[in-house]
Every structure is written in structure tokens, then in C-alpha cells.
């Protein structure tokens, strides 16, 4: 059997577990502890394989500097390329990248809303965490002149923040006051739900944000301190009607805004509809390319091993095991985004074939490049693999399995070391 063909077969074998994980993600969702154990075991095997199947041979052939260059290059390339792929819609292939995307999505959403309502001074009575919890609940609203926003005697079911435009307050037929940009009204309804004490009508075309009482009450189960935050808003309004209060400076506004953005949390509950909308913004092609970026370094190393006559059994086992939880979690996310099972399997099948071809290329490189260049290429692949382990596999394993993943990681490392040592 020729060397390139052997590399192709081993590359296909190592990546074939992507299909196994995809089938599991489509047809069966194992317990989190099981997934965590598999991911931790795979992390341990990859760490050992990087040390003994990549780093040690490269060091013995070319010394330390190719390792420095290659690992730095591999880690940098992986981080830059994966960040770009995630921004193009490939984020859903990993739970960790999904959370990072959700974090940045919420931060961008918060920044956009704060640009429009940061001048509403009453909101500065809220702590950054309280403000951050409220932002996802705000619904943009545009109304025409003459629209009644609050009707005297009607149940109070929402509050409003004015972005642009003017409104008037009426008690019966008597005009009491005017409201403009940066003001809010109806906040008492969120605390009491009592009938409106006055009518508020748009005098001009208006842009507002509405906070619905139903959404607010639902959020109270997660952040009960919001009711006290709203009470502070009411207390501030009362204080400002009875005494002159200094307005916050621009520096204070910027400081408060920065604190709100820094308080973004990814564990704030997200509705099924919101998740579906985020999932649908993912792109199957970007998911495929992102998965290939994860697997190309592994496939190249398989090819290097075959081309140099090294069995690499421990590394091949590590690749096979580590691919299962990756494709499984990705397939679950794609199913939630509405991708058909047939298309999911086709995507992963394509990834398997391309991984095999990449391994073939790696085996051919052995005969056409110098030892130093080959050592750098191996180290580059090793740096990218370590980046995968550090950024996705180990954090996800610990999050799902807690301290128990320690023993799975150790077991994976020792098994991989035993296989590698038997080849020395």
C-alpha cells in the first residue's frame, strides 16, 4: 500500500468519528456527564499525543526554535481564522463558541440600546447588572402623532422610554405636562399594575422603547433585585420633583455606560425563539469550514506520521475520540437551527473526505521539504491542536462534568502515553 494511500485511509479513519458524533447528535442526546467524560478523555489523549507524537519528534530532529515558531504560528492562525469563521456564522459548531457569540451579540445589543437611551437620566438609578437584565426586554416602538400610549383608567401593563418625539399628559381634558426625549413614563405599572392615573398621547411622531409587565415579571424570577431598582427610579423621580438635583456629567454617563456593557452575562435566560433566531444566523458552510480548521492540523499530523514511517496510533486514537463530542454538539445546534438530518450528515461526510485528503497532502510534504520546515509545520499543527483543547474541549468538559472530568482527562493522557511509549 502506497504512503499517500495509507495516509488517506488513516485520515479518513481519524475523521470518521465526526459522522459518529453527528448521528448521536441527530438521533440521541447522551447525558451531559457522558459527553463530558468523552471530551475530557479526548483532551487527555490529545495533550499526550501533542507532547510525544508532535513535540518530541520535532525537537529531536530540529531542536527547540522550530517549536517556538510553529506553536506561536499555529495558535495565532487558529485564533484569527476561527474568530473570522465564527463571525461568518460558524459559531454554533461548539457550545463554547456559541456562548462567545451570544456574549458579543448581547454586548452589541446593549451598546446599541444604550446609544439611544443612555441619556434617560432615570435609568442611572439602576445598577449596571439591573440595566443589563432589562435591556433584552426593551421593545422598540414607533407611533404616529395622536397615538394614545396610556389611557386614564386602563390597567397599567407597561412603561415607556422616549428616544425621539414629544408626548402630552392629560387628566381628563386638562393638559398637565409635556414629555420629551430622555424621559420615561408608566413605570408605576411595573410595580403595581394599577390603573393609569392619566392619559399620555403622542404630540409628534415618536420613537420609544416599551417594557412589558409580563416580560418584566418573568425576569424577576431570575433577578428579583429589579423590583428594588425600579423602586429607586420612583424614589428619584419623587426627589427630583421636590428639589433640584445635579445632572450627571458626561464622564459619569460614560462610566455608567461602560459598567453596563461590562456586566453582560451569558447565563441570562434566552427564550427558545431568541435561540432559534440566533441559530438561524449560523451558516452550514461556515460550520463546515470551521470544523475543517479544527481538524486540518490533526489530519496533517496524521499525514506527517505516515510519511515518516511513524505509526502514530496514540494520536490517531486521540483524534478519533475528540471528534465525537465536537460533531455531536454541532449537530444538535444545527438541528435547532432547522437544518435537515440529511444535510447535516452530508456536511460531516464532506469534512471526513477533506480530512483524508489533507492527511494525504501531509504525507507528501515529508519528501519535499527540509527537516526544519517539517518540524515547524508539525509544531504549527501542534499549536493549533493545543488551541482547540484550551479554547473548547477542556472548558466545555469541565462545565458539563465538573471535577469528575479530572479522572477522565488523566485516563486519556495515560492511555495515549502508553500507546506512544510502546512505539519508542
Describe the structure.
The structure is a single chain. The chain is of the alpha+beta class and 424 residues long. It folds into two domains: 3-103 and 275-421, no CATH class; 119-268, Jelly Rolls (Sandwich), CATH 2.60.120. The protein is 67% helix and 9% strand. It has helices spanning 3-15, 17-27, 32-62, 65-90, 95-117, 128-134, 188-192, 213-220, 225-242, 250-262, 272-280, 284-307, 313-336, 341-365, 371-401, 405-421; strands at residues 139-143, 148-150, 158-164, 167-171, 174-179, 184-185, 199-202, 206-212. A four-stranded antiparallel beta sheet has the order 1-8-3-6. A four-stranded antiparallel beta sheet has the order 2-7-4-5, with no helix packed on it. Helix 1 packs across helix 13 (313-336), helix 4 (65-90) crosses helix 15 (371-401) and helix 12 (284-307) packs across helix 15 (371-401). The radius of gyration is 29 Å and the shape is elongated. The relative contact order is 0.24. The model is unreliable at 241-246 (pLDDT under 50).
Amino acid at each position: 500500500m502506497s504512503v499517500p494511500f495509507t495516509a488517506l485511509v488513516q485520515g479518513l479513519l481519524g475523521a470518521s468519528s465526526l459522522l459518529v458524533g453527528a448521528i448521536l447528535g441527530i438521533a440521541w442526546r447522551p447525558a451531559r456527564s457522558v459527553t463530558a467524560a468523552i471530551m475530557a478523555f479526548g483532551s487527555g489523549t490529545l495533550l499526550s499525543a501533542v507532547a510525544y507524537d508532535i513535540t518530541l519528534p520535532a525537537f529531536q530532529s530540529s531542536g527547540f526554535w522550530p517549536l517556538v515558531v510553529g506553536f506561536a504560528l499555529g495558535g495565532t492562525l487558529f485564533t484569527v481564522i476561527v474568530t473570522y469563521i465564527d463571525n461568518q456564522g460558524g459559531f454554533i459548531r461548539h457550545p463554547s463558541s456559541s456562548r462567545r457569540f451570544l456574549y458579543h451579540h448581547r454586548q452589541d445589543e446593549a451598546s446599541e440600546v444604550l446609544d439611544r437611551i443612555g441619556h434617560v437620566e432615570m435609568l442611572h438609578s439602576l445598577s449596571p447588572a439591573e440595566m443589563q437584565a432589562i435591556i433584552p426586554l426593551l421593545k422598540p416602538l414607533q407611533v404616529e402623532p395622536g397615538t394614545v400610549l396610556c389611557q386614564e383608567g386602563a390597567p397599567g401593563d407597561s412603561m415607556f422610554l422616549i428616544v425621539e418625539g414629544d408626548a402630552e399628559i392629560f387628566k381628563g381634558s386638562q393638559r398637565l405636562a409635556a414629555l420629551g426625549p430622555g424621559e420615561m413614563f408608566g413605570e408605576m405599572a411595573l410595580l403595581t399594575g394599577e390603573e393609569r392615573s392619566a392619559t399620555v398621547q403622542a404630540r409628534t411622531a415618536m420613537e420609544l422603547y416599551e417594557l412589558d409587565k409580563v416580560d418584566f415579571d418573568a425576569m424577576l424570577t431570575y433577578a428579583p433585585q429589579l423590583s428594588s431598582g425600579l423602586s429607586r427610579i420612583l424614589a428619584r423621580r419623587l426627589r427630583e420633583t421636590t428639589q433640584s438635583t445635579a445632572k450627571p456629567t458626561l464622564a459619569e454617563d460614560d462610566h455608567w455606560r461602560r459598567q453596563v456593557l461590562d456586566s453582560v452575562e451569558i447565563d441570562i435566560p434566552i427564550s427558545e425563539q431568541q435561540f432559534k433566531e440566533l441559530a438561524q444566523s449560523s451558516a452550514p458552510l461556515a460550520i463546515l469550514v470551521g470544523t475543517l480548521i479544527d481538524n486540518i492540523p490533526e489530519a496533517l499530523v496524521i499525514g506527517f506520521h505516515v510519511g515518516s514511517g511513524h505509526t502514530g496510533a496514540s494520536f490517531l486514537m486521540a483524534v478519533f475520540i475528540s471528534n465525537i463530542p465536537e460533531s455531536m454538539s454541532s449537530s444538535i445546534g444545527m438541528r435547532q437551527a432547522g437544518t435537515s438530518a440529511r444535510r447535516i450528515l452530508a456536511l460531516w461526510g464532506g469534512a471526513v473526505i477533506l480530512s483524508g485528503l489533507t492527511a494525504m497532502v501531509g504525507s507528501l510534504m515529508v519528501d519535499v521539504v527540509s527537516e526544519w520546515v517539517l518540524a515547524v509545520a508539525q509544531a504549527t499543527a501542534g499549536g493549533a491542536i493545543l488551541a482547540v483543547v484550551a479554547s473548547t474541549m477542556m472548558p466545555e468538559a469541565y462545565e458539563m462534568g465538573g471535577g469528575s472530568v479530572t479522572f477522565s482527562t488523566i485516563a486519556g493522557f495515560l492511555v495515549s502515553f502508553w500507546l506512544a511509549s510502546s512505539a519508542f
